[in-house]
Amino acid sequence: VSNRKQPGLIVSVSAMAPWKGSDVLVEALAILHRQGCRARLRLVGPWPDRQYEAMVRHKISVLGLEESVTITGKVSKEELHRHYAEASVYCLMSRCESFGIPAIEAQAFGTPVVGSSVCAMPEICGEGGLFGPPRDPIRTAGLLGHLLDDKEAWRTRSELARINAARYRWETCSLPLLKMFSLSS
Predict the structure, then answer these.
(1) Both ends of the chain: CA-CA distance in Å?
(2) Beta-strand relationship, 113-116 and 69-73
(3) What pLDDT shows up at residue 181?
(4) With contact defined as beta carbons under 8 Å apart, do 21 and 96 qualify?
(5) Contact (Cβ atoms closer than 8 angstroms) between residue 148 and residue 158
(6) How many other CB atoms sit within 10 Å of the CB of residue 11?
(7) Phi, psi dihedral angles at 64 (to 5 degrees)
(8) For 84-108, how does the pLDDT look when each residue is reduced to its tens digit (9 = 90+)?
(9) How far apart, in whole angstroms, are the C-alpha atoms of residue 174 and residue 169?
(10) What are the b/e assignments for 85-110, b being 16+ CB within 10 Å?
């Protein structure tokens, strides 16, 4: 997968359930557009709640964002990696997130994270992300705009994202366990 970032591309990867905050992210995108930032959004993943999907699609239409938002549905692993690699920013404003595997996957591609401050994402993503209230599209737009507009801030968070993601590599996480088990036998 090439790591060719597309300027202004925001990617959100998840099972797009109502608590994942896709509607907030769409509102934040509309705010960015009103501020002159022509960002684009890709929502990647299945929609387990058809009513929520219909509501988000309606919001996209009402806000005039049809040309700026792509909804992919579930994708292959190769496509998923391409989305992470192309994104300038990964965003998930979830109100309930146990770990946030997609955020770490995005960071492995050098993609900084904008995420919710009320669940595990700040601890998991560390300095490779910026975090705010999950139901606040104005603050979300501000965090996204900061990373999309400030090249130095983006470069710093991108490098910190890669460093952070390395903490979760299989080899790094499993070696202490393997050592522990080999000592106990």
Answers:
(1) 41
(2) unpaired
(3) 78
(4) no
(5) no
(6) 27
(7) 70, 35
(8) 999 999 999 999 888 889 999 999 9
(9) 8
(10) bbbbbbbbbbbebeebebbbbbbbbb
Neighbouring C-beta atoms of residue 168, cutoff 10 Å:
15
Confidence of residue 177 (pLDDT cuts 50, 70, 90): confident
Q: pTM of this prediction?
A: 0.92
Please give the Cα distance from 164 to 142 (Å, whole number).
23
For the chain, the residue count is: 185
* Residue linked to tokens 């997968």: 1
What single letter denotes the amino acid at residue 73?
A: G
DSSP per position, 42-96: EEES--S-HHHHHHHHHHHHHTT-TTTEEEEES--HHHHHHHHHH-SEEEE--S-
Q: CB–CB of 28/56 below 8 Å?
A: no
Instruction: Tell me the angle at which helices 101-108 and 151-166 cross, rounded to the nearest 10 degrees.
Output: 110
Q: Is 115 a residue whose pLDDT tops 70?
A: yes
